[in-house]
């Protein structure tokens, strides 16, 4: 097992390089920027459909209004993702542009949306009330057009880079206001991106007879079909957990490639459910509630196992600290506190539990009559509740939840017990060592001569022996000043450090704004305890670009630490301090508000 972990550690830079790939990062961050669409639209669907489940009939105008809100949010998600992906890809590309050359992210965002429409949407004419109307087929404006959105975004930004790098722009006299001049500079790259995507659309339609978005779905359909088999679901879940195990945020690598089919399948499940049928797709957006039951690694039951069955003080403490966050799918306190990451005892259960869960879910959907997931619930919804809701409140879903909790406990418990024994042995050894050190210190103290100066003993008892205090109570200084040491002012070093952090604005970033909130709250609490004027906020990496210039310090949580180099380029440009504590250090800071303030002081050199 140790050999396996060493091999994984050896290849960790390779996996981190994958997670920092600018294309994958742009897709992940672009999709994350549109998550309010997914979550908000699902609320209106729930309002329109769930009352009927319990026999309540809503007024038809209200149902129509809710459906309209859904269609004009989720139904145009593809267009929105094209823009947000292009915006994030532009930010990554600007870090690689020559000095003085900058791509306009607002312009690339709009150009990508126009280009996506050319690749994904079909225009035709039809007769209505005796008149010919020009009509758009909206089928691919939503989740069905996500692949077209990504292609349009990448083509657009590359065209802009080509034109701006070579000064292929329209230049106006310097007297023209900057905003107007920028619009003219963007005409050539904007037109180039739209024309290229328009040509691709014409070629594909004439050669293949389908729009570009349909071509991608057709070509990738064998992969999607395979992904919804038992081996496919297991492979997806195993890869997600494996990447997290080596310290790289697994969902950001695995999910971008399958998000379009997951969302499309979930939308199809919903249509079947509303038509009175059995939603049969298992590869859906909220399948993560099962595979990542409590977080990646299916860790929902683990904190309870630590509290009830472990003897190690470390594991019991981690269980108590993580049980509430893990219930809401924030399992970083467990991952880094136990730790689970790169822990040879945890590799097998960490990967296997989620794979077993998705296999059981597919069996229940295919053979037992449980509905495939149809509604979208927020990612932080406790998994048992989320599964019950998104299967349309089936009682069989509660049976399924009980079974996977039991299976996950059976999978984890032997490995946790083995790890617990190791920690208990280590804790016993440390206790013995501390006992010996304590005995030795007592012996030395008994044989030591009494202090010559009574005042020195008083200082030693009342002040921590820091370097600053030692310097201030040297015998020569004490002799020169007859004022009692207890009345001396606070050391200058502490006052200077306090001034350094006063008035700071701190932004903490993680993958989904869950872990970052823990440290941001600790900093707020610590500021209140110490009387510091510090403001702290939490956010998700990828959604920070528009607000980061409002902060003095940015802290990266461990799961987004792999983006440190890219982030450093931005923070250096803006004169912002960037900090990136490692796993255990980060978790310790979230539990020690005063320590978090002290840590900020120490790192603001």
Largest beta sheet: what is the strand line-up?
Answer: 4-3-5-6
Task: Quote the average pLDDT.
Answer: 79
Helix residue percentage: 55-70%
Strand element count: 6
Query: In what range is the share of β-strand residues?
Result: 5-15%
Describe this structure in words.
With 605 residues, the chain is mainly α. The chain has 29 helices and six strands. The protein has helices spanning 2-10, 12-19, 22-33, 35-53, 60-71, 77-94, 105-120, 146-165, 178-185, 187-208, 212-227, 230-245, 250-254, 259-274, 288-291, 302-309, 313-327, 332-337, 347-368, 383-390, 395-447, 454-462, 467-472, 475-480, 492-501, 515-530, 564-574, 583-591, 593-603, and strands spanning 122-128, 131-137, 505-510, 535-540, 553-556, 577-579. The strands form two sheets. The protein has a four-stranded parallel sheet with strand order 4-3-5-6, sandwiched between helices. It has a two-stranded antiparallel sheet with strand order 1-2. Strand 5 (553-556), helix 27 and strand 6 form a beta-alpha-beta unit. Helix 3 crosses helix 6 (77-94), helix 8 packs across helix 10 and helix 25 (492-501) crosses helix 29.
Briefly say what this structure is.
Helices cover 65% and strands 5% of the residues. By secondary structure, the protein is mainly alpha-helical. The radius of gyration is 29 Å and the shape is globular.
Features:
605 residues; mainly alpha; four-stranded parallel β-sheet; two-stranded antiparallel sheet; 29 helices; 6 strands; 65% helix; 5% strand; globular
């Amino acid at each position: 097992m140790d050999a396996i972990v060493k091999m994984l550690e050896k290849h960790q830079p390779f996996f981190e390089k994958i997670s920092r790939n600018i294309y994958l990062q742009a897709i992940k961050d672009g999709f994350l920027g549109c998550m309010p669409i997914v979550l908000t639209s699902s609320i209106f669907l729930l309002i329109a459909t769930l009352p009927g489940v319990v026999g309540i009939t809503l007024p038809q105008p209200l149902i129509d209004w809710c459906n309209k809100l859904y269609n004009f949010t989720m139904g145009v998600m593809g267009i929105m993702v094209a823009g947000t992906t292009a915006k994030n890809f532009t930010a990554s590309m600007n870090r690689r542009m020559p000095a003085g050359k900058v791509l306009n992210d607002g312009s690339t965002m709009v150009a990508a949306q126009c280009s996506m429409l050319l690749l994904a949407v079909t225009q035709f004419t039809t007769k209505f009330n005796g008149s010919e109307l020009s009509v758009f087929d909206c089928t691919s404006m939503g989740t069905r057009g996500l692949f077209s959105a990504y292609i349009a975004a990448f083509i657009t930004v590359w065209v802009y880079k080509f034109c701006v790098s070579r000064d292929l722009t329209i230049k106006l006299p310097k007297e023209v206001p900057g905003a107007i001049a920028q619009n003219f500079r963007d005409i050539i790259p904007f037109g180039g991106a739209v024309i290229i995507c328009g040509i691709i659309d014409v070629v594909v339609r004439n050669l293949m007879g389908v729009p570009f978005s349909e071509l991608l779905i057709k070509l990738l359909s064998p992969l999607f079909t395979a992904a919804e088999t038992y081996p496919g679901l297991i492979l997806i879940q195993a890869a997600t957990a494996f990447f997290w195990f080596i310290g790289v945020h697994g969902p950001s690598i695995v999910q971008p490639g399958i998000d379009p089919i997951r969302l499309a399948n979930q939308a199809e499940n919903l249509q079947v459910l509303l038509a009175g049928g059995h939603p049969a797709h298992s590869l859906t957006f909220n399948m993560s509630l099962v595979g990542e039951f409590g977080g990646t690694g299916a860790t929902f039951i683990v904190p309870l196992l630590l509290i009830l069955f472990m003897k190690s003080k470390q594991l019991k403490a981690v269980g108590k600290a993580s049980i509430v966050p893990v219930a809401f799918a924030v399992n970083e306190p467990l991952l880094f506190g136990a730790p689970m990451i790169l822990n040879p005892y945890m590799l097998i259960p960490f990967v296997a539990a989620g794979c077993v869960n998705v296999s059981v879910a597919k069996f229940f959907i295919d053979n037992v009559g449980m509905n495939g997931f149809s509604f979208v619930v927020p990612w932080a919804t406790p998994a048992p509740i989320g599964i019950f809701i998104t299967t349309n409140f089936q009682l069989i879903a509660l049976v399924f939840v009980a079974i996977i909790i039991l299976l996950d406990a059976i999978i984890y418990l032997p490995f946790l017990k083995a790890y617990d024994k190791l920690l208990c042995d280590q804790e016993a050894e440390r206790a013995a060592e501390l006992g010996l050190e304590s005995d030795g210190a007592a012996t030395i103290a008994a044989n030591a001569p009494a202090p010559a100066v009574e005042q020195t003993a008083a200082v030693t008892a009342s002040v921590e022996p820091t370097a600053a205090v030692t310097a201030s109570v040297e015998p020569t200084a004490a002799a020169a000043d007859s004022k009692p040491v207890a009345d001396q002012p606070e050391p200058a070093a502490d006052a200077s450090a306090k001034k350094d952090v006063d008035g700071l604005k701190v932004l903490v970033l993680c993958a989904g704004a869950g872990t970052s909130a823990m440290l941001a709250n600790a900093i707020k609490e610590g500021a209140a305890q110490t009387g510091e004027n510090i403001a702290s906020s939490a956010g998700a990496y990828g959604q920070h670009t528009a607000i980061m210039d409002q902060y003095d310090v940015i802290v990266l949580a461990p799961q987004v630490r792999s983006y440190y180099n890219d982030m450093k380029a931005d923070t250096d440009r803006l004169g912002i301090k960037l900090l990136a504590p490692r796993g255990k250090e980060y978790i310790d800071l979230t539990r020690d508000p005063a320590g978090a303030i002290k840590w900020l002081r120490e790192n603001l050199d």
